[in-house]
Amino acid sequence: MKGSIGLCFSLSALAGVAQATWTKWKDVEYLFVFGDSYTQTGFNINGTQPSPSNPMGNPPYPGWTSSNGPNWVDFLTYTYNASRLQTYNLAYGGATVDAALVTPYAPTVLSLKNQVQDLYLPKYAKAPFTSKWNGDNSLFLFWIGINDVGNSWWLNNGTLYDEIFRVYGDLVDSIYDSGARNFVFLTVPPVNLAPLTLASGEWSVENEGLVIADWNKRVKGMAEGLVKGKSGVKTWVHDTWKVFNDVIKDPKAFEQTQGLKNVMGFCKAYSNGAPTWYTKDASCAYAVNEYFWLNDLHPTFPVHNATAADIVALLGKE
């Protein structure tokens, strides 16, 4: 597997400011995760809660994912964990940062704003949960923006992104205020190379790509600003764009994706999922796990596997 790609910012270089609380990946006990369909597992905050013996609580592993198998959160929790993690996955399929700014596909979708304000803050940012996790033993992860970009990229409106990132930053601030100190932000992958955009032609591929680059630059700026403006914070920006791009160029870029045989298209028989993680439908050239894309937008679980492995490499699996 290639080495980890990403940016890491900490307060250690800033004189007179408290040191970041991060120790090592193996010391993390609690994950709080926010995002969209690339991240969701169908966790219900009113259902069975995570525990050392049942790390993700509900539903049963791997949950309801968009990858026809485990997604990156599953892999972090069960495969690349260096401790007994308890993972609270608040992600919701179709989410944007704020539904009032970029409309999701349905009004029932819980945006990042909802995930933070309606789920996390009332449920996990106060006792008894705050007696379990603290700034040292918890990690907060965000993978959002795929739908913000996808539902608005043709506007190419920097003013819109200014407002989105104001909301995004305020939400992260509220999580910081609850005691969080360690943050991972995943960049938007090259979804302009997904079949959905490829079908629209070269202009769409190029111009959506430019907007994705703008979004990812803003993610890095937000992470850097968080470190400079808050005490005891450490942040990582995981270059998920590069992981996806590297695999599309060469599936052998990562051990986890070396079995992929089609990186540009998908087979319709698998588009809503397959009976097993390794199903081979007679109408498809390859088994479902040998495609990069499950459908016109969502990657299969080997891509999630590589993403999770690269995140842990960035964090340092110690």
From TrEMBL:
Q: Which Gene3D superfamilies match?
A: SGNH hydrolase
Pfam families registered for this protein in UniProt: Lipase_GDSL
Molecular functions (GO terms): hydrolase activity, acting on ester bonds
* Classification via InterPro entries: GDSL, GDSL_Est/Lipase, SGNH_hydro_sf
Does the keyword Hydrolase feature in the UniProt annotation? yes
Residues in coiled coil: none
Tell me where on the tree of life, at the top rank, the source sits: Eukaryota
Keyword field: Hydrolase, Signal
Q: Which residues form the signal peptide?
A: 1-20
Descriptive protein name? Carbohydrate esterase family 16 protein
